[in-house]
Amino acid sequence: MSDVRNVVIVGSGPAGYTAAIYAARAQLEPLIYEGSVTAGGALMNTTEVENFPGFTDGVMGPDLMDNMRKQAKRFGAELITDDIVEMDLSGDIKILKDGSGNTVKAKSVILAMGSAYKEIGLANEKRLSGRGVSWCATCDGFFFREQEVAVVGGGDSAMEEANFLTKFASKVVVIHRRDSLRASKIMAERAQANPKIEFVWNTEVVDVLGDQKVSGLKLRNLIDGTESERSFTGLFVAIGHDPRSELVKGKVDLDTEGYVTVDGRSTRTNLTGVFACGDLVDHTYRQAITAAGSGCQAALDAERFLSH
Amino acid sequence: MATTPVTTATFEAEVLKSTTPVLVDFWAEWCGPCRAVGPILEEISNEYGSKIKIVKLNTDEEPAIAMKYGIVSIPTMNVFVNGEVVKSIVGAKPKPALLKDLEAFIA
After folding, report:
1. What number is the ipTM of this complex?
2. Dihedral sign computed on CA atoms, order A231, A129, A247, A68
3. What is the torsion angle, in degrees rounded to the nearest 10, for the CA atoms of residue A228, residue A231, residue A233 and residue A234?
4. Is B31 a catalytic residue?
5. pLDDT of residue A1
6. pLDDT value of position B14
7. pLDDT-derived band of residue A47, with 50, 70 and 90 as boundaries?
8. pLDDT single digits (tens) A179-197
9. Does residue A111 contact residue A252 with C-beta atoms inside 8 Å?
10. How far apart are CA B56 and CA A104, in angstroms?
11. Which residues of A touch B91 (CB under 8 A)?
12. Cα–Cα distance for residue pair A34/A54, rounded to 1 Å
């Protein structure tokens, strides 16, 4: 591909797909790199999305993403299910390299790589990953039928995972560092009303036990410092996400937590012709609808930039 | 060659008694990352099918085999040589990363 594209969008999910819909309708013929295994973004691993406006009875995360994808395609966006592995964003013509070794040139780039789940950071968490430690209840919950599992975290994703896991597990224990939940009221109340869910407050996981697979957790009470062990066959980690900005580190300005910084209420990064949207820039809201909104902004910013 | 499904009935002949290395993709319909990695495995099978056979085991339909091999996370991709699991790859990965994991079998 030797021609120079108007705009290349890196990453899918609500931000990337919405940017693609708007850019396609502006006849910018966008090319979107969806990601080879991350296509559709974080919502691909959720079940029901109940708060996306317009869906009275909720919508399944993967279905919502599939609809956005089809909508982008209908207006002429070109979709590629591959990763961008290298970017040179400094010049007027941006140069991107994909996972199959192709090079793409573009006048503007919209960054929408989203976020990746956070790990607790324990050596045994890594070692036992896929052997009882999981970040995807919808993928792995099924294998914990009639067993006791733990969920670490106190936000909406932790509550969603805990509720989902009660379909299979005999008991789900939510372990949280604080004495109250960060989750939205409706999600928190639903989890607290679920008889299969037990809450362990002011407690952190200090080690994951087990030889070939998870057999339990070592816990520390953060108030009195006492340590204890408890048996579990599964550990689901839902302690939040980090922006997926490694690829642009040292190229565009990031804040101390690794989020791409943008100019005021726009999506403009410090580099001319480079825009950023979605979870990659958002510490605060991190919702499907806010990501979609900022994807729209990025496409409009790119359109304005290209017309000058 | 295209990937093929395996079941309890065919597992021994197709996997355990195979003379070439076999990658068994433990997957299920409802698993997003499994669906993402499916087409990549299809490509690898088409390109390296003479060196490694790639088969798919649906963990919903064949829970006994999944349990036997201790599957608690999908996708899990186990490589069998002479009936033994010699490598286990957990989680969807981009094609270059999978090819690197499979280097010893496809080189």
Report:
1. 0.86
2. negative
3. -30
4. yes
5. 45
6. 97
7. confident
8. 999 999 999 999 999 999 9
9. yes
10. 34
11. 129-130
12. 24
Is the pLDDT at A2 greater than 70, yes or no?
no
Which residues have CB under 8 Å from A241's CB, separation 6+?
A: A42, A115, A116, A117, A118, A279, A286
**Chain A residues touching residue B32 (CB < 8 angstroms):** 40, 44-45, 62, 136, 138-139
Nearest C-alpha neighbor of A95 from the set A273, A243, A258, A269: A273
DSSP class of B33? H
- Helix (H) / strand (E) element for A294: namely helix A288-306
Residue A223 Cα distances to A63, A154, A186, A219, angstroms: 43, 17, 28, 12
- Chain B nearest CA to A134, separation (Å): 7
Mean pLDDT in residue range A118-127: 96
A102: alpha, beta or left? (left if phi > 0; alpha if psi -120 to 50)? beta
Q: Are A54 and A289 in contact (CB under 8 A)?
A: no
CA distance A49 to A295: 19
Contact A107, A273 (CB under 8 A): yes
Sheet harboring A216-221: ordered strands across?
A203-209, A216-221, A227-231
H or E stretch at A110: strand A103-111
Cβ pair A139:B34 closer than 8 A: yes
pLDDT 10s digits, A214-257? 999 999 999 999 999 999 999 999 999 999 999 999 999 999 99
Sign of CA dihedral A71, A73, A78, A83: positive
